[in-house]
Amino acid sequence: MNYNWNWLVFFDEAPGGVTYLQTLLEGLAWTIGTATLSWLLALSMGTLVGVARTTSMPWARRLGTMYVELLRNVPLLVQMFLWYFVMPELVPRSLGDAIKQIAPPWGIFIPAVLCLGFYTSSRVAEQVRAGIESLPAGQRMAATALGLESAQVYRYVLLPSSFRIILPPLTSELLNLIKNTSVAFTIGLFELVGAARSMQEFSFQVFETFALATLFYLILNLVVVRSMLLLERRLAVPGFIGPVKAEKVAS
Questions:
Q1: String of b and e for 80-119 (b: at least 16 CB within 10 Å)?
Q2: Cis ω for the linkage preceding 105 (within 30 of 0)
Q3: Which residues are 13's β-sheet partners?
Q4: Going residue by residue through the chain (251 aa), what tens digit of pLDDT does each one get?
Q5: Would you put residue 2 in left (φ > 0), alpha (ψ -120 to 50) or beta?
Q6: Is the distance from CB of 216 to CB of 113 less than 8 angstroms?
Q7: What is the distance of C-alpha 123 from the center of its chain?
Q8: How far apart are the C-alpha atoms of 185 and 239, rounded to whole Å?
Q9: What's the 3-state SS for the chain?
Q10: Which of 93, 152, 153, 176 is 20 to 30 A from 159 via CA?
């Protein structure tokens, strides 16, 4: 392969008066911002819908099921186009015109966050539902017997216990969300993949560009994994999940 490697290209000046390294770091910042806000939305909506699917109200369970099946069975790329191109046409004309007049990058950033957040919330909702249903029925009955209202049972008993159980799959969902932010590149968001594409088009150093972008994704995800492991250990209740470790008996 006749390819001229140039690892110093990152310090060359890019269009706009900054270096290519700064361009990639700006893309990384947009990736982190998009993933953070999307995760907050996904966790909030996912918890709400997950709880709705475990209540005794049939209409709430059916509504939650419709929400999950609609969002998780439509490809993310299609949903991204729907949020960006179609949604402004479906709302009232005044609101649609206001949405179209939001200048970039916010006019692209907001639909991307909404799309990623609602899509991921459907997956989080299933994990919240599974976590609640995995708890012994006695916990709900004991909390009710103590005089707690239904909302209090979820807030003080069921959700704290279920979140301890589903922390590992939630970590995987957060990692998937970070990687899914690259789909926002298709509507023009200048996140990490968008920045890498811009750099390789101007510098023609494809391998170096995507090697550093890959390294940024890897470091970011490893930081998330490590942080979630620390959180998991901090919230762990001895004997609640997994086998109880045998205590050493002093001889």
A1: bbebbeebbeeeeeeeeeebeeeeeeebbbebbbbbbbbb
A2: yes
A3: 19
A4: 678 899 999 999 998 889 999 999 999 999 999 999 999 999 999 999 999 999 999 999 999 999 999 999 999 999 999 999 999 999 999 988 998 899 889 999 999 999 999 999 999 999 999 999 999 988 889 999 999 999 999 999 999 999 999 999 999 999 999 999 999 999 999 999 999 999 999 999 999 999 999 999 999 999 999 999 999 999 887 776 655 454 444 44
A5: beta
A6: no
A7: 10
A8: 45
A9: CCCCCCHHHHHCECCCCCEHHHHHHHHHHHHHHHHHHHHHHHHHHHHHHHHHCCCCCHHHHHHHHHHHHHHHCCCHHHHHHHHHHHHHHHCCHHHHHHHHCCCCCHHHHHHHHHHHHHHHHHHHHHHHHHHHHCCCHHHHHHHHHCCCCHHHHHHHHHHHHHHHHHHHHHHHHHHHHHHHHHHHHHHCCCCHHHHHHHHHHHHCCHHHHHHHHHHHHHHHHHHHHHHHHHHHHHHCCCCCCCCCCCCCCCC
A10: 176
| Chain position carrying tokens 């475990």 | 54
